[in-house]
Automatic annotation (TrEMBL):
Entry keywords, A to Z: Methyltransferase, Transferase
GO terms (BP aspect): methylation
Keyword Transferase: yes
Protein name per its UniProtKB record: S-adenosyl-L-methionine-dependent methyltransferase
GO molecular function: methyltransferase activity
Length: 232
């Protein structure tokens, strides 16, 4: 997912010149590597979502990183709920069946994000990789519509992809019904890439204005990539 950072550099550069803080919604925080980069380098405000209620202790045990350390200032966490449930709650209103979920999401209702990250891995025995990213049930127009509804007008949806089969990949055409622009960023294998979807012309421009954020992202991306095609 680090490769996808370079694509959003123009957007983050513009945010640095304003008083508004960059706000990121991260669906699938895991150990929080990418989230820490956004906080440390961009001063971002992160709302992280992870189904695992033990994500905090896991990060500390295996990576010696605590979500209460100074490097995590700016991150708040919604844990113990699946990303789809949180997404529905943030998008649609009050759930009548899970009052704890309602309370966990209450302070985030009505917020709009500059970036929504989706990086959830699903085990898939039918895949040669043994994994499907994102999970199959995320690749639906209704889900993409909800994510778009949480973005500000110049925001971007960034999604890591590991393709298990052709039928799965073909469903990404649904992004074209939700966003004006969809970029496919090639990684080290044809079945692994990052998709960036947006309605903002900023992401379509080839501008690369000098600045702190641009320098930071360039240093992060140690392997070259190419935006080899629009996805539709």
């Amino acid at each position: 997912m680090l490769y996808g950072l370079k694509v959003i550099q123009n957007h983050l550069n513009r945010r640095e010149t304003s008083d508004a803080r960059v706000r990121v919604l991260s669906l699938g925080i895991g150990v929080g590597i990418l989230e820490r980069i956004f906080i440390k380098k961009f001063g971002a405000e992160i709302v992280g979502v992870d189904k695992d209620p033990d994500v905090m202790s896991f990060a500390y045990t295996y990576f010696r990183s605590s979500l209460v350390d100074d490097e995590w200032k700016g991150l708040t966490l919604i844990s113990g709920y699946c990303a789809l449930s949180v997404l529905s709650e943030l998008s649609n209103g009050i759930s009548k069946s899970n009052l704890k979920l309602v309370e966990a999401c209450r302070v985030y209702k009505g917020l709009r994000y500059n970036v929504v990250l989706l990086n959830i891995i699903d085990h898939d025995d039918l895949s040669g990789w043994g994994a499907c990213v994102p999970p199959r049930h995320f690749v639906e127009k209704s889900i993409f519509d909800k994510i778009k509804g949480l973005l500000d007008p110049e925001g971007a949806f960034v999604m890591q992809v590991i393709v298990p089969d052709i039928c799965y990949e073909e469903k990404f055409i649904l992004l074209g019904g939700c966003f004006r622009i969809v970029f496919k960023i090639a990684l080290n294998h044809k079945s692994k890439y990052v998709l960036v979807a947006t309605d903002s012309a900023v992401f379509a421009s080839g501008e690369n204005k000098p600045g702190r954020t641009s320098d930071v992202i360039t240093s992060l991306v140690t392997c070259s990539f190419n935006i080899d095609e629009t996805f539709y």
